[in-house]
């Protein structure tokens, strides 16, 4: 249960109701972070627009690298909502979600490719307090993904840190997207 309640569709303004319908159609349920942020509608809209723009902007990273780096960040921060939602997104991308059970062993696991392991280590380093990224790590990531890919990876990990810390502070926990309790959107294909 979040520390402050979600804004119900009944209590939402007309634009928020419209955004709720869009979110429900896209994800099968209104994501709770979205509904809690509806207490400040301008920030909810800004966040929603930002998320859509980021999703459209990321073009250089392989999907598995992008999703795994964000998932690892969520795991490191202990954001159960982000882990739940991220697992659903990976499932919808056709990625192997069984290997997520072994995410803590990524550095030595054959389940993860070299580029994925590099991105996961970067997610770990960026999620430390203080940040523990090294020059060598950045140089290796730039060689692997190019400058644009490195910037995308950095941005996505930082964004996941923001999401996870916001959700944790507001007490937002998993919503049932992985189990199917909330997500009724059929898998693609």
From TrEMBL:
Top-rank lineage group of the source organism: Bacteria
Pfam family, one: CMD
InterPro entries: AhpD-like, CMD-like
Residue span, Carboxymuconolactone decarboxylase-like domain: 58-123
PANTHER family per record: 4-CARBOXYMUCONOLACTONE DECARBOXYLASE FAMILY PROTEIN (AFU_ORTHOLOGUE AFUA_6G11590) (PTHR34846), CYTOPLASMIC PROTEIN (PTHR34846:SF10)
Listed name of the protein: AhpD family alkylhydroperoxidase
Species this protein is from: Amycolatopsis viridis
């Amino acid at each position: 249960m979040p520390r402050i309640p979600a804004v119900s569709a009944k209590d939402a303004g007309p634009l928020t109701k419209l955004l709720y319908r869009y979110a429900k159609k896209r994800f099968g349920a209104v994501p709770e972070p979205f509904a809690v942020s509806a207490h400040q509608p301008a920030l909810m809209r800004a966040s929603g627009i930002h998320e859509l723009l980021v999703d459209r902007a990321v073009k250089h990273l392989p999907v598995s690298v992008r999703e795994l780096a964000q998932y690892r960040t969520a795991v490191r921060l202990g954001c159960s909502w982000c882990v739940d939602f991220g697992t659903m997104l990976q499932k919808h991308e056709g990625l192997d979600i069984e290997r997520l059970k072994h995410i803590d062993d990524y550095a030595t696991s054959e389940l993860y490719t070299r580029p994925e392991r590099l991105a996961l280590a970067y997610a770990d380093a960026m999620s430390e307090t203080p940040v523990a990224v090294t020059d060598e790590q950045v140089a290796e990531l730039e060689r692997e993904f190019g400058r644009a890919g490195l910037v995308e990876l950095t941005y996505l990990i930082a964004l996941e840190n923001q999401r996870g810390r916001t959700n944790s502070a507001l007490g937002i926990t998993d919503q049932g997207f992985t189990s199917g309790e909330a997500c009724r959107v059929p898998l693609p294909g």
